[in-house]
Records
---
Amino acid sequence: MSSADRKILREEAQQVLRQAMLAYEGDPVHVAIYALTRAQDWNELQAELARIDSAPSDPKRVSTIVDAVETHLESELRSYLGVGPNK
């Protein structure tokens, strides 16, 4: 596979994930928290969430939110790729 092909596939996958995040039916804050987990380490995330009154800061709750968004994204991507659920 050429470098150009990989770039096209990567951009297409990014677009699918972007659309899946926009279609997530949970609280939009959940997507923001998930995005922050991708950009920060856990301690930085917890410190930032503690400063935001409306955001959940309980570590178990945050972990549950991140898991829910990841499950949604994985499901959307598997559906797009035509791959069955992970066993």
---
Amino acid sequence: MLNSLKFFIVALVFTFSLVSCVKDDSPDPIIAKDIQVTSSSTAEAITLSWKPVSGVSWYTIYITKKGESAREIGPYQNLINDPITYKIADLEPNTAYDIKLEGKDYAYGGNVLAVHNLTVSTLVK
């Protein structure tokens, strides 16, 4: 009985020491920057405009009409212009839309480096 108890204690200590030596190699979390976005609207379209964010390779826009699923627009890769503009057309007049703009980078496996959320309403027709 004593030998089996010693074996159990040694095994327990050995197991604990293995767990305590594990190194955490996970990357540091990326804190997304805010994208400064301006918007304008007509009865059937919303135009977004923003300054490029350093390190971002592409932008994805998500647009949601109240009570519906988000619609993804993108990836949008026109990174030459400053400011960058994008027109979302074929929208319903006098309607509020929630918009999320995400900036992502290929170098980080598509992680979100920048984000901005806004609500914009189309005008009455």
